[in-house]
Write a structure and sequence with these properties.
Elements: E1 3-8, H1 16-23, E2 29-32, E3 41-45, E4 48-52, E5 65-68, E6 73-74, H2 76-86, H3 93-96, E7 97-100, E8 104-105, H4 108-121, H5 133-141, H6 156-174, H7 182-197, E9 200-202, H8 204-213, E10 218-221, H9 245-252, E11 259-267, E12 270-272, H10 285-293, E13 306-308, E14 310-311, H11 312-322, E15 326-330, E16 340-349, E17 352-354, E18 366-374, H12 391-404, E19 408-412, E20 420-422
Parallel strand pairs: 1-10, 1-11, 2-5, 2-10, 5-7, 6-8, 7-9, 11-15, 14-16, 15-19
Antiparallel strand pairs: 3-4, 12-13, 16-17, 16-18, 19-20
Bound molecules: guanosine-5'-diphosphate (GDP), 6-O-phosphoryl inosine monophosphate and magnesium ion (MG).
Guanosine-5'-diphosphate binds next to helix 1 and strand 3.
């Protein structure tokens, strides 16, 4: 059976966690393929709201197996807390959750390096979640990293010490004010490594290959969003992994010809947390209204998310680089009550009208050109089928489908599992 992918098409927080949870009943295995605890994937059901960071969003389904793939970076400290948070739910994670030996480990000094790097950048900072993501992937590509499989070796602490010492020298080099007590951080880290080691480590590419061969269905879960991709995102204001479809192949060891559906998730508008260009950003009361109704505050850092209209040019670009086969539109309910809605359908780029995402999208070079739509007043949150949708919402959806040439398979009308309408 083919491996289906689910990934975000904007700057993250599109609602991936919610939809993975909804789709899990159709899959035997859910596998996270990149990112780390910079992610915050929110699930809501039976009056419970839960945020997952490293653990795949299929964990609440008793039948599913959840794999943390080789492309993920794991902070044992955050991970141990995540497991603790699951204890109240009676989840047998010792059998349901398995971890790739090839996944890299985030060390306490990676977090410190993240902080030092950001502090040294001043106003040009990335707006990182400061979870050590960038420095850990740097050590991975620099061939210095510690992998989960290393933790099974007797001499891993020697390797750890050498790397942590090197990191401390690097932190000094930054010459910025980063306060820390490494002894305390290490005590916490080594305790958390014990918790991590109580879980099953596997050769996940082999596991997934055999599972696929024996007819098991697999859903690969992405983190972040396509515009935060290290290659195709708004560099340097991106994360440090490939968040796009290709990242699922390298992050799980799944061959490209084994990929089936590519589910692309987007919000009916756009948000971004952290720094970097955002052509359709709103700085007025309309943007504030979106943030308020949409409760746009980061699940990881609590930072306010910047809000703006849907950017169809950026969305087309994301569909293209990912090969999206089915779209899912999230948070349509948030747009109820807006008199008119805008969608960016072209850019004015240095005086010229263009319809692709260019290399440089800084505001001094690029202004959005909008198509306006009539809004709808109806509350969507109680709706259960598309026949209840107001005409204006149907018009909005039809326009997007026509422009993107991809069907919108799901319209989400609220955070709860049940507030999901299949078309
Ligand atoms: P993820 O990182 O892509 O999993 O998304 P987050 O969990 O960071 O952010 C999405 C937020 O929107 C969460 O608070 C969800 O509970 C919420 N959410 C998801 N879908 C919907 C929806 O259709 N409507 C509303 N109002 N909220 C939603
Ligand atoms: P999920 O999976 C939204 C953003 C950060 C920052 C940039 C780099 O919940 O959608 P990093 O910590 O990776 O060095 O931060 O990327 N960022 C996210 N924004 N959702 C996320 O994950 C994000 N993960 C990272 O805000 O701008
Ligand atoms: Mg999130």
């Amino acid at each position: 059976m083919a491996v289906d992918l689910l990934l975000g098409l904007q700057w993250g927080d599109e609602g991936k966690g919610k939809i993975v949870d909804v789709l899990t009943s159709n899959y035997n295995i859910i596998a996270r393929f990149q990112g780390g605890p910079n992610a915050g994937h929110t699930l809501e059901f039976d009056g419970i709201k839960h945020v997952l960071r490293t653990i795949p969003s299929g964990i609440f389904h008793k039948e599913s197996t959840n794999v943390i793939g080789n492309g993920v970076v794991i902070d044992p400290v955050v991970f141990a807390k995540e497991l603790e948070g699951l204890n109240q739910f009676d989840i047998d994670y010792k059998t349901k959750l398995i971890i790739s030996r090839k996944a890299h480990v985030i060390l306490p000094t990676h977090r410190l390096l993240d902080a030092a790097s950001e502090a040294s950048k001043g106003k040009a900072k990335i707006g990182s979640t400061l979870k050590g993501i960038g420095p850990t992937y740097m050590d991975k590509t620099g061939r210095n990293g510690i992998r989960v499989g290393d933790l099974e070796l007797s001499d891993w602490k020697d390797k750890y010490r050498a790397l942590a010492d090197k990191h401390e020298a690097m932190i000094k080099f930054y010459n910025v004010d980063v306060q820390y007590n490494l002894d305390e951080m290490e005590t916490e880290f080594f305790e958390a490594v014990k918790v991590l080691k109580s879980l099953k480590f596997i050769d996940s590419e082999e596991y997934l290959y055999q599972a696929q061969k024996s007819g098991k269905s697999i859903l690969a879960e992405g983190a972040q969003g396509s515009l935060l991709d290290i290659d195709f995102g708004t560099y340097p204001f991106v994360t440090s992994s490939n968040t796009t479809a290709a990242g699922a192949c390298t992050g799980l060891g799944v061959a490209p010809n084994q990929i089936g559906e590519v589910y692309g998730i987007f919000k009916a508008y756009t948000t971004r947390v952290g720094s970097g260009p955002f052509p359709t950003e709103l700085f007025d009361e309309v943007g504030e209204k979106m943030a308020k109704i949409g409760n746009e505050f980061g699940a990881v850092t609590g930072r306010g998310r910047r809000c703006g209209w849907l950017d169809l040019i950026a969305l087309k670009y994301a569909c293209q680089v990912n090969g999206v086969t089915k779209l899912m539109m999230m948070k349509g309910d948030v747009l109820s009550g807006f008199k008119s809605l805008k969608v960016c359908t072209a850019y004015n780029y240095k005086g010229e009208t263009i319809t692709h995402l260019p290399y440089n999208i800084e505001p001094e070079n690029l202004k959005p050109i909008y198509t306006e739509f009539k809004g709808w007043k109806e509350d969507l949150t109680k709706m259960t089928e598309t026949s209840q949708f107001p005409k204006e919402l149907n018009d909005y959806i039809a326009f997007l489908e026509k422009e993107l040439e991809i069907p919108i398979h799901v319209v989400s009308v609220g955070p709860d599992r049940k507030q999901t309408i299949f078309r």
